[in-house]
Automatic annotation (TrEMBL):
<dbReference type="InterPro" id="IPR029058">
    <property type="entry name" value="AB_hydrolase_fold"/>
</dbReference>
<keyword id="KW-0378">Hydrolase</keyword>
<dbReference type="GO" id="GO:0008239">
    <property type="term" value="F:dipeptidyl-peptidase activity"/>
</dbReference>
<dbReference type="InterPro" id="IPR008979">
    <property type="entry name" value="Galactose-bd-like_sf"/>
</dbReference>
<dbReference type="InterPro" id="IPR013736">
    <property type="entry name" value="Xaa-Pro_dipept_C"/>
</dbReference>
<dbReference type="Pfam" id="PF02129">
    <property type="entry name" value="Peptidase_S15"/>
</dbReference>
<dbReference type="Pfam" id="PF08530">
    <property type="entry name" value="PepX_C"/>
</dbReference>
<dbReference type="InterPro" id="IPR000383">
    <property type="entry name" value="Xaa-Pro-like_dom"/>
</dbReference>
<dbReference type="InterPro" id="IPR005674">
    <property type="entry name" value="CocE/Ser_esterase"/>
</dbReference>
<protein>
    <submittedName>
        <fullName>Peptidase</fullName>
        <ecNumber>3.1.1.84</ecNumber>
    </submittedName>
</protein>
<feature type="compositionally biased region" description="Basic residues">
    <location>
        <begin position="448"/>
        <end position="457"/>
    </location>
</feature>
<feature type="region of interest" description="Disordered">
    <location>
        <begin position="433"/>
        <end position="463"/>
    </location>
</feature>
<feature type="domain" description="Xaa-Pro dipeptidyl-peptidase C-terminal">
    <location>
        <begin position="375"/>
        <end position="643"/>
    </location>
</feature>
Length: 655
């Protein structure tokens, strides 16, 4: 068991200045990134073979600085690797698109449109001026500054031979061989870094945790902290995203680069690898998910194997995340697990989705663009340039409902865990819900029981927006961020309006007394900030099958007063706890991390429901076992409450 470093309510609470720092450094990095290039052009080699020890051949595209005639320079330079399952031609296309947009001066206006639909779409599009697209694959400006970039199709994808293993041990060994290959090239000075978004950030962190020889630094954008817990089996439930994503990768394997085909560059065994496992892994996953068991979803060793070993990372690592990322604010969970000297590990997290990396960066009064940070990071740790990025942060976050802050650590050490009790007494502020309960400092006076109505879920919900990487922006702000549509069939518990600003900072836990009428129950919980006009913005979410309520104490986090802040629920084979119909049971439901300002006049709300499709999909047997319904039990002798670390007023830097 881990005890969180939160103060007791009896300790003095110092005033902490958390204003964003490093503006002068950020300006310096931006000037450097946007300044004159060291080399005038970029040389592109489209079909490079990397022969692995087992005979598998990976295919790569290599981009090198070139002179005015397009001839690659002879100088040895640091190499940056991007290992992708999405077909290296896609990253090349993204780079081509970025060049075209820059050439014709196409950009996203600094002043967003007033139309709600266009506003949210423009926020997603700000991944372009925020540097997100430049970090996806190929960054011409970075190459011309003196780097080699290589984009490689991982085994079994794109033009590479073999069978795709999705992060498995074979793929991890491949990564180590690719790093060694890069170091051995005549154009490499011996320094190698890895970078990428999503999948490519995860395999970068895997390599760092595996301490791959020769790997010098990592720049990871929107990674996962634990692929089972964050996405594939949150609270024991599957997700609609996985089979769709796996299907997309499986189909993409059949689309090699046209240039590879023309040049005869398809690796030997390419067709055999695809015929051997074209879609069967996807089909297996779907059927195993529907029936709730199988070698893929129950393979605990596989999930342990594919999760990066953050505790073993020793090289400089930069992690960027977003509050509404499909993986949740995983960057902050990673922060809890990495222990390195100051400056060698940096975290930035901001408002945004998986599909809008960097959308909040490069604006006045905020951190620089994502591509600027990427260059500064590699300049420092691969070239030895003292540019001060090791003195930035180490935790830089855009507070939910607030501004930018620089923290020495997360959660805020001055945060005090506090209980917010659930009560059936009406708050008077949620008439649209199945139950308008209250959230306060005292347990309820009497016992009540409240049955949940099961609603299948809504396209217009914040959980769906997270799952769809923000692509539901076409529905406008109400569909993307306002939880009230989702709350209509839920039980809600809303606090009184804040009389002064306060902050919630850290992991959250809902301690909930429940009763299942059958042998299973599925619980979906979110915590929202409610504005005076009723707008309910989701801050955190979580889910749990009642049969997965057991807690692994060794991996869990408790506050100094003993309450769970982050309970860890095992979701592997043979780790279910029977649910006795009609008997009250207490659950501790783990919610995603937050750092949110609750402004004067705003309220905190707990939202409880029995479903949230398509984000969470219990198996058919689990759904059948829960068909008789479930209830929340509000009992003064065994109260239900939200545990949240809070900081009041000026001590949170919000005065």
């Amino acid at each position: 068991m881990t005890t969180a470093k939160h103060r007791s309510v009896r300790d003095p609470l110092p005033v902490v200045d958390t204003a964003l720092t490093g503006a002068d450094l950020a300006e310096q990095w931006t000037v450097t990134a946007d300044g004159p290039s060291r080399y005038p052009r970029v040389s592109f080699t489209p079909n490079v073979s990397i022969a692995l020890a087992d005979g598998t051949v990976l295919k790569a595209q290599v981009f090198r600085p070139a002179d005015a005639d397009g001839i690659p320079v002879a100088e040895r330079l640091p190499v940056l690797l991007n290992l992708t399952p999405y077909n290296k031609s896609v990253t090349h296309l993204a780079a081509w698109l970025l060049r075209g947009l820059r050439r014709f001066g196409v950009t996203v206006p600094d002043v967003p449109p007033k139309n709600p639909r266009l506003f949210e779409l423009s926020e997603l599009a700000r991944a372009l001026p925020g540097g997100g697209l430049a970090t996806f694959g190929v960054n011409d400006a970075l190459i011309r500054s003196g780097y080699v970039q290589a984009v490689i199709d991982v085994r079994g994808t794109g033009a590479s031979s073999g069978g795709w293993g999705m992060f498995n041990d074979v793929e991890q060994r491949d990564t180590a061989e690719v790093v060694a290959w890069a170091q051995a090239q005549p154009w490499c000075d011996g320094s190698v870094g890895m970078y990428g978004i999503s999948y490519c950030s995860i395999n970068s962190l895997q390599a760092a945790g595996n301490r791959v020889p020769g790997l010098g630094a990592v720049f990871a954008v929107e990674p996962v902290s634990d692929i089972s817990r964050d996405l594939m089996k949150t609270g024991g439930a599957q997700t609609f995203f996985m089979p769709i994503w796996m299907l997309a990768v499986a189909l993409g394997k059949w689309l090699p680069s046209p240039s590879d085909v023309v040049r005869g560059g398809i690796a030997p065994g390419w067709l055999a690898g695809r015929l051997r496992a074209p879609l069967n892994r996807v089909i297996r996953y779907i059927f195993e998910g529907l029936r709730g068991r199988g070698t893929l979803i129950d393979n605990d060793e596989y999930f342990r194997q594919i999760s990066p070993r953050f505790e073993d990372i020793e090289i400089p690592t930069f992690v960027y995340g977003a509050w509404d990322d499909i993986f949740g604010p995983a960057a902050l969970r990673i922060h809890r697990r990495i222990s390195m000297p100051d400056g060698m590990f940096q975290v930035i997290i901001n408002e945004g989705y998986h599909g809008s990396p960097g959308s909040q960066l490069g604006r006045p009064d905020g951190p620089p663009r994502l591509d600027v940070l990427q260059r500064a990071w590699f300049d420092k740790w691969l070239k030895g340039i003292d540019n001060g990025i090791d003195r930035y942060g180490p935790v830089t976050l855009q507070q939910q409902n607030g501004g930018w802050h620089t923290l020495e650590t997360y959660p805020r050490p001055e945060a005090v865990p506090q209980r917010f009790y659930l009560d059936a007494e009406p708050s008077g502020f949620a008439a649209h819900t199945s139950l308008d309960g209250s959230l306060g400092a005292a347990a309820p006076r009497g016992r009540t029981e409240h049955r949940l109505r099961r609603r299948p879920g809504l396209l217009k919900s914040p959980t769906t927006s997270r799952l769809m990487s923000g692509m539901t922006a076409v529905l406008g702000t109400p569909g993307l961020k306002d939880s009230r549509y989702f709350e209509r069939g839920a039980l809600t518990f809303t606090s009184a309006a804040a009389t002064e600003p306060w902050v919630v900072s850290g992991p959250l836990n809902l301690h909930l007394r429940t009763r299942a009428n059958g042998a299973e129950a599925f619980w979906v919980v979110s915590v929202t900030d409610v504005a005076p006009n009723g707008f309910s913005r989701m801050l955190a979410e979580g889910a749990l099958l009642a049969s997965r309520r057991a807690v692994d104490e060794a991996k869990s986090v408790r506050g100094v007063d003993g309450d769970y802040l982050s309970p860890w629920h095992p979701t592997g084979k043979g780790q279910k706890t029977p649910v006795e119909p009609g008997v009250s049971t207490t659950l501790d439901i783990d919610l995603t991390e937050v750092d949110a300002m609750i402004k004067t006049g705003h309220r905190l709300r707990v939202v409880i429901s029995a479903a949230s499709l398509p984000r969470y999909i219990p198996s058919i047997p689990e759904l059948w076992a829960s068909r008789q319904g479930q209830s929340v039990v509000l009992d003064p002798d065994q109260p239900s409450y939200l545990v949240a670390p809070v900081v009041i007023g000026a001590r949170a830097g919000v005065a």
